[in-house]
């Protein structure tokens, strides 16, 4: 799965219901509506939306007209058949394999060593570094083991395993660098400088320079790190002959000399002179056995090939190249003892003192304070050790590195001497990777600064200074030298260091660490994260200014924990642009954890944010939590980390309202809402994802008693949205999952903690909830009535009136009649005086006519199936409708449905009169032409008045 900040949306209806969204790149795989990075500005808020003011084209507040042909009541907002594939969102965006197991282990260390009041931040940081280093080393070794154990032949799998191993190796190296370098920054050394006597070692001065110069100290730390992570040189051992070849030295050249001597020496002279016979080779050299046109050296003392400017026999080319390449590897590794042993093994023991010449002379008796250092092998028994003419030795190495030669291993030989001398130009050709290049330049700077210090102290003779020596300080200057090195190796068009994007990005992290520019790196990440939020089509990997990518989860983890370390060490500002950038990066990491459903560790990192930023970020994240157990865990974590739970949940609810607002347009209200209850329940409109998001978010507030008022207000707002757009199943889900009993107690004296305003809202909530109770009662009545109709069709009226059916129907009637009667008589009447009176009027106009007609039909059906006396209830209902104080007639007039109700009332009046005369009530028994006619009902209702 390619990197993405958040999960793809599964909302894919055949008919678009979402606002247009710009096509996302491969780094952005899901809609912005479901994105945790979504900005509140992503939607136009000036639409006609439930729970909001209604605005016209000129931004003036307007009212939606009611009734008449313009009202559009014939257009229902129900989802049509073509929208049935509208599915719930898929929450998981990033699987655990993308993040790696270190996400949990790093969080464990952060939690274990988080700084608490009174704790020493530095101690916490050191513990954290040790934990991170140990953890990444384990992951590297595990990945390396998987690589070694893999026996398959799947090329893709091999590449993936190798890439994983390379990443973990480089991450381990990065934390190794952090462990060495970051704790040293900001540390003030109080070493007392003293005068060093003539006979004391220069090593004493070197240590004084380490204490005195921050730059020199950091350069040495970086060089030590580069030596530590460098691999040991690969000594060839392809077959049994390799060791023999390397141990025999210039075997082919020596054999050629012997053969030439045998061929050209006078036997008689040899006999006459005996052992004292000397054979003189031509000064120009002798021809090689393999190639007669090539002359080889005739003097095999250490300086012979240099003095004669001749090479060796072709057969020794392998030996020459291998010897110098391995020698360079040992020196690059900083293993000078290993380099000396390699020289002895390869029959060039004379070179061992050369590679060991970089150690300043130490005498145990004089330099006791430094002689016990592990880098020296001095002892009282051994006596003085090291090089008393180190600067002269350095110039000799430089001269060897600069000489011209056509020998096979020349490149590696010159590079080896170049490293010893601190020369960049001669060592660079042998550098194979980015770390080699950094090492070459850092090593050169150390040598230059050390010699410069010795010169100031008068420890380099005038004769030595006359000899040429490399001086890297002339190239880099004395300021920002490490930054210059990193920049010189970080050009976008520099293809010397081809590597995977992740390794390239980790090099950038290492470069930021060694050049002390971590804030710049963090600001780059923060910029990318902000840009990604602003524009989902932004592709960080195409940003040529930097190789880092904010959608690289492992890299984001590393940078986030670097910030935490620096904060513990006191090396990160508490305010200002850098502090803001750090907050942005930590917030990005939290969003990444949320996308992977790592909710358990999110509060830990949220505690690293400022109070306002924590509320902002967690207000986005918590909307995506669906599991009740997870909610409880997060609430406990919020309390444990002392986060502002109440403010966060308020922001979460606000975000849910904002993000879902676009789905609750109500310019055109649906008509005959209750027709939903005439179809089977399984075929009705289901709760939509936006409805679920609102209810799910509101459920958070159930966990906090102090959020009772907020929950009441949010519940009223949701009920309004659902009722204004005909989402009865959503309203039912809200009533079932957050019943009023969760908010207010049935005992009045237990609600005294609620202010008067909130008590008023609570009563409105109960009224909205009561509509669902009434509709459920109506649903039950309709179900029983339908079952009775089926029974009647099969067995007649007698069958219908036998058994328990009539009793059940009577109970259902009484329940529906009582609840719907309350709804018609007083539902939301008092709320028409509130600030949202226009929306309440919308809701009453939408539902009261249908409820009234439904109650009318209940009385009618009860008269037919239970007792004829129930017909009179229809007339009683008509009296209530006609009563001006009830406001019911206004809802019929506003929606243009009074004529239909008058027709229904006329029909039931006929039945009442017929019942009073003893006429049959069964239409099938009335003969044609004998229908009852009552002239009082032969009236035409006047047209509905114009909309207000």
TrEMBL record:
Keywords: Membrane, mRNA transport, Nuclear pore complex, Nucleus, Protein transport, Translocation, Transport. One of its GO terms (biological process) is post-transcriptional tethering of RNA polymerase II gene DNA at nuclear periphery. GO terms for molecular function: structural constituent of nuclear pore. It is found in: Nucleus, Nuclear pore complex; Nucleus membrane. Part of the nuclear pore complex (NPC). Belongs to the nucleoporin Nup84/Nup107 family. This is Nuclear pore complex protein. It comes from Orbilia javanica. The gene is NUP84.
